[in-house]
Amino acid sequence: MSPESFRFIVLHTIRHKESGIIIQGYGNMQGRGAFFLKASGNKRHTLSVLHPLSIIDIETSSRNFGELKSIKEFNTAYNLKSIRSNIGKSAIAIFLSELTLRTIKEFEQNKRLFSFLEHSILDLESICKGSSNFHLYFLVKFTGILGYLPEIPVHTKGMLFDIPSAGYTLGNNMPNLNFDKEESELLATLYRISPENLEGLKIKKELKTQFIKSMLRYISYHTGSEIHCESLGVLQEVFAN
């Protein structure tokens, strides 16, 4: 197998015995993928560099590790210092990594999806204020990349977001398939906002949790696969106050 070079977004790492790391993520050339890295020297440092949402440039080896291609060498594409050092951003990175890993199953190249993920990571890194709302914003935009972007009318007052139709309705015949009033209003707000204006959103912690769960129900409904993120509990603890 000839060596390859490409850019890769790290979503999850698994230690393999004493000297190996299996890296799962999303690449700009092959979509979803997993690779084996033989860690030498300071393994702890290597793992800290390969944190959730880190973006690396990979060169593969001509040798495989079982069914996995081996990484000959890699370099970090960006120094994501803020994501690594800020507890809130780190928690968001873990959640977004798990969400992406559980949602995206395709192994085919998708340049639009990769570009969205890369730009979202750089937005999270650069945002100074309002980062505690970034994952909510990401969830809404992520549905668009998946092909299920909600239809938001100009006026949504008094209307509820309906999951099956992906639009707003005045009725509430199926409560389990509707967002409630506050969630519906928040969805419309996040749909129209830009990352630099997230600071101005004052959202109760209970509403944040409810909204995330509703968005996961929405994604699950339209992808046909139940999406459950264990890292949601980490987010709740970090942003408890």
Structure, explained:
With 241 residues, this protein is an alpha+beta fold. It has 2 domains: 72 residues, Beta Barrel (OB fold (Dihydrolipoamide Acetyltransferase, E2P)); 112 residues, no CATH class. It has 8 helices and 7 strands. The strands form 2 sheets. The protein has a 5-stranded mixed beta barrel. 31% of the residues are buried.
Largest sheet: 5 strands, mixed, barrel
Which band does the percent of strand residues land in? 15-25%
What is the overall number of helices?
A: 8
What's the end-to-end separation, in Å?
A: 52 Å
Strand order of the largest sheet: 1-2-3-5-4
Backbone structural class: alpha+beta
Number of strands: 7
Topology summary:
Elements: E1 5-16, E2 20-27, E3 31-38, H1 43-49, E4 55-65, E5 68-76, H2 81-85, H3 87-103, H4 111-126, H5 134-146, E6 160-162, E7 167-169, H6 181-192, H7 205-223, H8 232-238
Parallel strand pairs: 3-5
Antiparallel strand pairs: 1-2, 1-4, 2-3, 4-5, 6-7
Helix pairs in contact: 3-8, 4-5, 5-7, 6-7
Short description:
By secondary structure, the chain is of the alpha+beta class. Helix content is 40%, strand content 22%.
Features:
OB fold (Dihydrolipoamide Acetyltransferase, E2P); 7 strands; 8 helices; two-stranded antiparallel sheet; 5-stranded mixed beta barrel; elongated
